[in-house]
Give the backbone structure.
Amino acid sequence: MTKIRIGITDHSPPPFEVEREALGADAEMVFLDSRQEQDYDPEILKSLDALLVWRAKITSKTVDQLERCRIVVRYGVGYDAVDLTSLKNKGIPFCNVPDYGTEEVADTACSMLLGLQRNLALYDVSSRHYQGDWQNQYRETQRLSQSVLGVIGVGRIGTALVNRMKAFGPRILGYDPYQPSGHEKAVGYQRFQFLEEMLPLCDMISFHCPLSDETRGMINSDFFGQLKNGSILVNTARGGLLESFDVLEQALRENRIHAAGLDVLPQEPPGNHPLIEAWRNREDWLEGRLWITPHLAFFSNQAWYEMRYKAAETVKLFFEHGILRNQITE
């Protein structure tokens, strides 16, 4: 590979051991050290042959200054913060890394579903404050093998979740208009063409779809209104799928859902919304019913390495072989 200059926007500072392992000695890496576009030196941007993007928002402000850049790669799956139209107009291909944390996110979703369905958090709370008979703390709980799980988005991670949950015996339904015909037969779930037909059947819902104009805010009042009372919702996909904390709070207060597990939020960190304050203060009505984790469902030591290596390797494949692995063209 000829000598190339690669910019890395933020989050992971030098010495870039993993990226160097993937790229070899002929790559020069420059750390831009900010998620804010206004902080980037225009002269550095003009000198880059490739750009690796972590959490920074990339708009036309940055793209317009990429004079030499021939490829942009996102560390990770989501790309809603990247202006694809500007890149396309500039003739710069964009790729992501969609397969680095498949097992980890599926494991997290599975853990949340099982824990919430089995009321583990509620029992943990009640056991700390029990009075009377130690075992007289039980909550109504449906046998898992008699439950129905709906999976929204049956791509890599959704499929991995289906395969894990099969062992526990629930009936598994799936909604994903972008999977080919017969996908449900190969994987093993009941496919629905219309989401509104699937939702009333589900005791549990798990989200594994990307954030797009089609899916943004889809978890709204109408969505909750179609669910069984007392169902469980898990979102390890994208925070923007949830319209607002307001609709989630209403659904929990009215028992439209029994519990929710969220690794992603519409605002991160979540600020001071009344629902978040109730969660932080462990208010009785919410205790054990809302699990929030800090957008780390993807993380393991192995996934962290894999994400970084594959992002850098995508650059190398392009410059050495002209391969655009995982190119996003929409």
About this structure: The mean pLDDT is 93. The chain has two domains: 4-100+301-328, 102-292. Residues 4-100+301-328 form a domain with the Rossmann fold fold (CATH 3.40.50.720).
